[in-house]
Amino acid sequence: MWISSRFFVILLLLNLDNTCSEPFEAHLRGPGFVMEPPGRVEFSNSSGGWLDCSASGSPQPTVDWVHADGSAVTEIHGVRRVLRNGTLVLMPFAAAAYHQDVHNTIYRCIASNSVGRIVSRDVQVRAVVAQAYKVDVEVLSAARGCTAILRCVVPTFVKELVRVVSWVHEPAIYIYPSLQGDGKFHLLPTGELLIHNLQESDESQSFRCRSMHRLTRQVVVSSPTRLRINSHRGIISPSVVEHTAHVQVSQDEGAVLLCVAQGCPSPEYSWFTHNGAGPLPVLSGPRVRLLGPILAIEAVTGEDSGVYKCTAGNVGGEASAELRLTVATPIQVEISPNVLSVHMGGTAEFRCLVTSNGSPVGMQNILWYKDGRQLPSSGRVEDTLVVPRVSRENRGMYQCVVRRPEGDTFQATAELQLGDAPPVLLYSFIEQTLQPGPAVSLKCSAAGNPTPQISWTLDGFPLPSNGRFMIGQYITVHGDVISHVNISHVMVEDGGEYACIAENRAGRVQHAARLNIYGLPYIRLIPKVTAVSGETLNLKCPVAGYPIEEIHWERGGRELPDDIRQRVQPDGSLTISPVQKNSDSGVYTCWARNKQGHSARRSGEVTVIVPPSIEPFAFQEGLAEGMRTRTVCGVSRGDPPLKLIWLKDGDPLPDLLGANVTMLDQYSSLLSIPSLSATHSGEYTCVAKNPAAEIKYTALLQVKVPPRWIVEPVDANVERNRHIMLHCQAQGVPTPSIVWKKATGSKSGEYEEVRERPFTKLLGNGSLLLQHVKEDREGFYLCQANNGIGTGIGKVIQLKVNSSPYFSSTSRSVMVKKGDTALLQCAVSGDKPINIVWMRSGKNTLNPSTNYKISVKQEATPDGVSAELQIRTVDATDSGPYFCRASNLYGNDQQLVQLQVQEPPLPPSVLEAAMISSRSVNIKWQPKTLGTGDVTKYIVEFREADHSLPPALFVDQWQQIEVKDPPHFNAMIENLKPATRYAFRVIAEGSAGRSAPSQELIVRTEPQRPAGPPLSLSARPLSSTELLISWVAPLPELRHGDIQGYNVGYKLSSSGNTAYNFTSVSGDGDGGNGELLLSGLAKFARYTVVVQAFNQVGPGPLSEPTAAQTMEDVPSRPPEDVRCAALSSQSLQVSWQPPPIYHTNGLLQGYKLIFEPIIDDIQPSKDEVESRKTTALTMVLTGLRKYTNYSIQVLAHTRMGDGVVSKPLFCHSEEDVPEAPADIKVVSSSSQSLYISWLPPNEPNGVITKYSLYTRVVNGREELNNEKRSLPSQQAYYEAKGLHPHMEYQFWVTASTRVGEGKSSRVSSQITTNRIPARIISFGGPVVRPWRSTVTLPCTAVGKPKREWFKSDVALRQGGLHNSQLLDSGDLIISSLQLADGGNYSCQVDNGIGTDRLTHTLIVQVPPTAPVLYVTSATSSSILMHWKCGFTGNAPITGYTLFYRRANGNTDEMQLSRHASSHELKGLMCGSTYQIHLSAQNKVGTSPTSTILHVRTQGQSPGHPASTALLAPNSTSLLVRLHSWPDNGCPLLYFVLQYRAVTDDPDAEWVLVSNALKPQRRIVVNNLQPSTLYQLRMEAHNVAGISQAEFNFVTLTKDGDPPPPEIMHRGRSGQTTVIFANINLLIPTIAAVSGMFCTIIMIIVCYRHMLKNAPPLAEQSQIQKESLENRANSEAAQRERYYATIHKVSMQNNDKIPETSEDISPYATFQLSEAGGNMSQPHHGGPANTLLHSFMYHERALAEGCSSPPPAASKNRRRHSRKTEPESEESESDQDQLTSSRTESSNQHEGKIKHSIIYHGAQSSTSSDLSPMSEQKSLPRRGRSRYHHQQYQFSTNTTPRHHNSNKMNNNTTSNTNTTATNTTATPSTSSNSNKILSPRGGNLKSISSTFKSQDSIQCHIPTLVKSPSISTQQQKQFHKQQLQNSSTNNSQHSSSNPNSSSLKQQQPLLITPKLHQLEANGQELLGLDGIGNSPLVACMPPSSQFRPIPHKSIMPAHEPPHHHNHSQQSHPHQQQQHQHPGTLLNPSTAMLSSKFFTAPTLPK
Q1: Is the previous residue joined to 92 through a cis bond, with omega within 30 degrees of 0?
Q2: Label partner for 1286 (CA 20 to 30 A): which of 51, 570, 1347, 1605?
Q3: Predicted local distance difference test score (pLDDT) of residue 1300
Q4: DSSP letter string over 1045-1085?
Q5: Residues facing residue 602 across a β-bridge
Q6: How far apart are CA 1209 and CA 1119, in angstroms?
């Protein structure tokens, strides 16, 4: 069957149209919330609540509600209902109908449509059941003048729903919340009411609290409450009673941080923020206001969030609290993209953008939802959601939900659409072969986007339209299309190729399969086919039947194909490609045949149509409005029928466009626009279509259009703090840009562009959004639109900010004096016009017409209106609240003005100091108010309270400060002077006037660190290790307190260290001058010194540094690298290197080379120690001994002296030729032989190698023979034999060394003879042997003589000596040598012909005897001792060993040089006894030790101060001046201090202040009671012991006045002495005094008995007895400063009494025995009848060594020189040696203290006092230069022996009458021999005295003791007694000395002793020059610092010759009767016991 081709084409076109018109999903839009419900909804059960929810979308979404679990919300009748518009209504309900699952649950709103579903945030619904509640008022009371806090107490169950709206000040004053109160009342935003400046009148006022329930709006008022004002006026430190710990606000809102503290005085608040590295203070600014306890921040931003700290402080302290502000910045959530189209199978990616104010926000908690259901987290990465392999199930609505920690949520939605996806067949049918008859169903399923359309064809043509065919199609839920064809009863003609075609705009897909029906061939109708020229034509033959064997095509009777373009496919279809219109048009025939030969045929027509083609066209460029344009659309080819149409932007041309279309012909169309406008712009399309195709061509028409307003901006008004949108939209081509600008001034002024910033948003459509508009946003705005076409457009609009009236504060207070005019002003801001009305008490309008006292004024201000209400002649009735009410078009507001009518206040009372510091005083007081008067401020006046100025000078000297805003009851007065007394007073001032001043308050400010440094700092060196630092106290105005001491810092200037070494020096508290001796410094070093003063607060600034250099000193190290080399036999070269630079201690002046030969002589004839000086580092020593070993030492010396000597270096000189042999002898041994002997050379100058014996024979006229014979060096004799008789032979000898032959001996000649006389051929001379050895004394002789040996002319017989032996050879052998074996041994020979004699001098060397050790001086830490060596044992001393130990300590020993004769022990303990002894060594052995000396270093246990110097009581304290406690030479270690009040109870407990109080200048004992008698017990401890004392004192009255007389009397009567106050001191004191007294009596008795009864032969025993007594005395004197005992020793004949001060102790006491006394053994000594003599010490070195011989001078010559030349010692002394040999203690200037010495008789009481020199050495170095005492020195001479014949006679009769000696000269002698030195005159000279051996003198060493126990009155009485005795003695002996002077003239001087003969009752006394004939000693005036020492009387010393014997023997008792008391005054600081010490006299 043929089907026309035309019908086929129509079917194709219809199918195409249906496909294009299929509805597409582009118009669908997912749901979005228009109104999302809030996150939290609260409502009352009485009011109910509702939740709005609306959404938009396409189609319109439905709104539903679900629970949190997703279940649907259903309606509950009368309880819950869902409206149609989506609102959920919760109805009011009774309390019993409360259901938690309804009224306290979570709801969600869901919006859904066909695109998807979205869900809202969680909505927490809470219904509150209204309950009745009460509020109470809690009053946090405060003191008067402070701030009270009233708190509204709300029950906890409604606390979060109730807020305080106001307080009522009874009766009707309302107080509303404000950020800043009115000065009196302040209602905080949190509801607390602050009432400032509490007065007594406030106690009568009542207050109520008004609260409101924020849900029910119910107002509840509390009951009235009155204030409570504490009477306590003390300071209350602040405590924070209320603060908002956490404040959470949203951005752009206002935040109020509250911190309320309670305290008195009212605390001051400070705010800090802790958002940075450290706390920063919060400063006021445009947005920040500091309002005391409130910190208000407007329009907060995220930067304001953080931790804030509020600090409230007053004088009592401070309190703080931390507050956290959280700013919830609104965040914007957006999903990018919000609509995403993805092809199926692709990947979709959504990103959740979270921003805040346009800035990204950090990590957030993000949840993703799809269609209302949460997605698993696996599909997202942080803020990105990725959907892989998108399928149709993935499309829908997606939500990004951001949940913040605060709990609020934000969300955004996006839609995922499927993109254009070409169809895909999901299911298709298969080929089937059937018999005719059954039903057949064919099915296809396809997917794609858009949803594809499925069409069916049969063999390429539409399905037949008959009842057996049915086509069905539907879409699944997943968007798949399913289509099927059902054939109810299949027939043969239904067979063929069926195809399903799925097609959408993205593409098409088809599936084809055959349906075979068994039957004969059948060809259906072939419709007319229209083919398109140029394309491919596929003709299918619609054949049915099965099976078909073959199919053929024919055209015009010819079987096809007949052209290359034609092809028959295997399935029988014909394909022609490409189709040509002319050749391919026509009728085509299709026939088919089966195997049986049955066939069928059918023909169809094919028409070929050419498709149209449009020529390109375009519009002209640069077309503008008003112009004309045209264009032509021409079809270049295409078959008709052609249709040409025009489209604009895809749509037909509208009629209003004004465009004309004209068909020029059937192939051309003209489009013309006569007048272009903006609407003409667009895309113009020409469409040409014919049945073959539809062709389009598009050209763009662009009309340039200048901007035009779409929405023109207009003037706008906005209320303050609101938002406003300024719209401005313009259009044009191209699209114009919108710019906003704001005028900087007027409308016509300059404009600046508005940019995006906080609270200013520029929207994309050109609108301007202004948020939180303030007045600064008001003005003119310009909106400009420009697109480059023309000049653009602009519009200026005015924005006005409408402001309702508002006041800066809600209330204020006005105070006015009674009778004055009150001015009540209020300034209101807001838009005008503003109407102001004044009201009284909130209800009565004030009208001047009805009240004559008032007048109203009003004037405009730039910001609003200022109003004023005047009330004339006010009184108390006018007080009260006034309201200024302002209103305008936008609202109203009112301000409370509280009027208080006042009277002048009363003066403040109870003025006291709350806090006192160094520069400020906090004064507090209590106010007094009268009536309604109030205090606006207080005036504090102050001035310095200097009592030394008269009050008249205080006029107008008051300084003032004001306390106001608000007036507190305390004031801080600053900028005061530290440690200064001030007077304060307070004046209260109100608006009514000032009060009278309060009572004055006297306050002394606290001290402060000194602000100024010490002045006049100087440093001067005192020695090489000491600097004396002195300074002046800081200026008084900079001391800021009592200067307690100074810190002295020093450092080496050369060191890089910047730190100082500080030493503290106590001050006197008065800021006096100070000084410090820095010791232990580096020598010759420059130091930098600073000083700072300190008081009880701390140290002040350092002074300007000063520099000083210590003095030079001797080098402390020897030269280094000492080397020696022999240059010749008499020269050595020595070299060395300088000492280390740090040990030179000065500028090196040179070097000293000390050398001596090492000679083992018995006693060197001279000291061969030599020294030479040089400045070089090498020296050649010449003139030395030949071939001698030398000891060489080198030292460096500076200007100050010699340094340390180097260790000995031994160096040997070279050999040389020897000297001549010492002697030669030639004797005849026979007639023909001579015997020659000789002595070796005295100076061999090397090792003797041989002797040369020269022989010469002479006959008297000529030499006959000459012979030389060499002999070995061991041989010293030779016998020449075989000589000619009677011939003269001459012999001489030479010695040789390896250098050569030396000098020859003398020539000795001898004539041979037959007579052989006896001659000794041995040589005599000294023989030195050590003891206990054996010696052989040779006596070899010729002539066979007879021998005899003599010892000191005493013949020796065989066996005469027990240790001697005479040999037959004549030699004498002595074994076991002892010292007694020494002497001259002579050998005499005689043979009758001749005689000869030989003498040997035997010297036996023994160990030396013990040295004589005596102490020179002692200090608190050192002992200086000298010694004289005894018998050296006939051998040189090689060294000394010094042994010393502290009592009960271990013995230490020290090796000393053999040249040393003195040594100073240093580093000893203060006040300790040391045992010292010395031994000497020679090569034989060690001597016995010297007598042990018991020496005590200076210092004793502490003394006792005077109570007046120690104690200074005050009213409630006691000042103890610890520095006044005497240490007695030993530094104090600590104090024990306790006290108690003196009561009737003797057992009252002691209050211990400290049991280990370190020494300091002063200490204050506090907490004492005024006018109370106290007892103070103190102990002072030092190394030497403990001192305890008790004192009574009375504290002053409370006002500082002296205590009552009865208490003072009680205190004096109860005062105990220092010693008897403690039984622990009393008993030992009594025992010690008794023991000393008994010992002294026993010594005197024994001594007298010895002198009177001892026979001459008992002298030795008497000496031993006295020695024991003296030793006992020495051991009993442990409290002495020091003493020394020197025993009598045996001396050699050439020894002598020490004559010079270098040889003796400065205070030694010598025993002078008679010349005829027996000498003691060397090791045993004891005193003979002794007299004592003292010598002034002259600091000069003793001669070193013991081998130096004394000066050879006769005693007569010495005596003569001393009589005639008293100052001869000065002329003989070597000053250089004096300077260089001084000890360390003598390195100071010559101004040292020399004290006088008094001589007493032999029977005087023993001396107890320390030597003045020792006392001086014990003084601190820092104090040396302070003492400038007069200096005196004297010398004594003894009378020569021939001047006293009686004494000579007396000596012949008795050896014991030495108690009276010639120790004084005659008056004439005395006047010449005594020398008085002026205090400043020249060098001090030694005192030397010459004595006969019978002479004896006793010397006492006086010391004055400082003792506070002797009162001044007692001293005056004793001194008066002395003057009386002195006057009596002067009257008795005035004739003896006409030159005497009065005692009064001598009082200012120290003692100047000169000895005179005085007579008293027949006695001859020893007087002192300068005091007349009085035996008294002149003294200084008594003072409290000195006590007299009695019992130091002047003893009878000398009598005239004519009654000398009588006085000595007959009246021994009269010596005591005529002793006169004497007083010695000497500055000393120690109490000493009376002892004396003796020393033996060294015989000459």
Answers
A1: no
A2: 1347
A3: 93
A4: EEEEEEEETTSS--PPEEEEEE--SS---EEEEE-SPPTT-
A5: 590
A6: 12
